[in-house]
Amino acid sequence: MATASDVKRNLLLSALPVAELERWLPDLEPVDLPLGHVVFESDSTLRHVYFPTTAIVSLLYVLENGASAEIAVVGREGLVGVSLFMGGNSTPNRAVVQSAGQGYRLGAHALNAEFSRAGPVLRLLLCYTQALIAQMSQTAVCNRHHSLDQQLCRWLLLSLDRLDGDDLEMTQELIASMLGVRRTGVTQAASQLQAAGLIRYARGRISVLDRPGLEKRTCECYQVVKKEYERLLPGPGPGR
Which of 27, 59, 183, 184 could cross-link to 72 by cystine, CB 3.0-4.6 Å? Predict the structure, then answer.
């Protein structure tokens, strides 16, 4: 059985009241989340929600021609599968692990039973959902109005907020898929950031050398998303 200290590596689980967390512990199942693993496919029936602890999961919208773009990123601050408790039980999005790690999953029955109690868990999950919607909305605006350089900075910062340390295992092909752009554009933007001394990129690993510089270079979208998570959710946000 999962222990309270282990599951509290996920900030949303850590924010649960003690009584609710203890009810969940027997049903929380540890899971490995390897790079590229599809947590759920678009339009599939959701049977679990996932609480990443050391992994990052991207929510992608995939077009009929196979092209895709990331609409949100979820890590230790939240959960994957909000459609399950919002009543839809499925979503047109695909969830794919973008940074390998671990997490926990909870079955649909256990989650919906807790949600139906209309207690503190309901409010916490609804506040998280509002923060996630804010991230999706801001991502859409950013992709339409800001430069690829700024988008890459935003994406790197949001990813770092959900990991320990300053390194990301990430290929340019994967970044291009997440941002919905050509690989050559990512190569150019990453080269500019490296030339400015903000990052170091080599062999699929990105190391952030100057985070304050990266924050100055990005657009306002990063701070908008970060502040919304901090405003809506108790405890330390993903970037603190």
Answer: 59
Which stretches does DSSP call E strand in 65-142? 68-74, 94-99, 101-107
In tens, the pLDDT along 157-184 reads: 999 999 888 888 877 887 887 787 888 9
CA pair distance 239, 13, nearest whole angstrom:
17
Dihedral, CA of residue 220, residue 222, residue 225 and residue 226, to nearest 10? -120
Contact 100, 55 (CB under 8 A): yes
The amino acid at residue 87 is: G
Are 103 and 51 a contacting pair, CB within 8 Å? yes
pLDDT digits (tens, 9 = 90+) for 7-53: 999 999 999 989 889 989 999 999 999 988 999 988 888 899 999 99
CA angle 77-83-86, nearest 5°?
100
What are the structural domains of the chain?
Answer: 4-141 (2.60.120.10), 146-228 (1.10.10.10)
